Structure of Disulfide bond formation protein B:
Amino acid sequence: MNPNPLAWSFRAQCALGLATCAALLGFAFYTQFRDVNPLDPCNLCILQRVAFAATALAFLLGALHAPGGAAGRRVYAGLALLASAVGAAIAARHVWITTLPEDARPSCGAPLEFMVQASGYLDAVRKVLTGSGECGKVDWTFLGLSMPAWSLVWFVALLLWAGYVGFRRR
């Protein structure tokens, strides 16, 4: 019995999205835990990691299920689109904060785990998104772009990929 070629194509495309997210998260953890010059993530960096993980989970579920119908493909692609769009919004905010002059940056917030314990998840997310001075500090660049800028580039790429995977005409 031959497997559905469209299902295999969807599975491979979701696996590629998953592998991309895993590689990006791997690099983020490498920069945090390396022995020489480790980079501590700020609160917005942590939220971007959560968005990459959510995007990866959507691609993983799509790859495991590999629905044959267009509706099923659109559900998984829609989940990946949503997660990557949220990540892009967080990354865009982070990039904006890095462009502000140091004296105009919002004040630095408390560590994320403390904020969650003290005031709950929703309030902690609201506080993180309203600014953190440490998030304005650029410790790393590659080809002239900071890590938040690269995150934004990758979120947009993943958003476009999810749209292609789930909504292109077969």
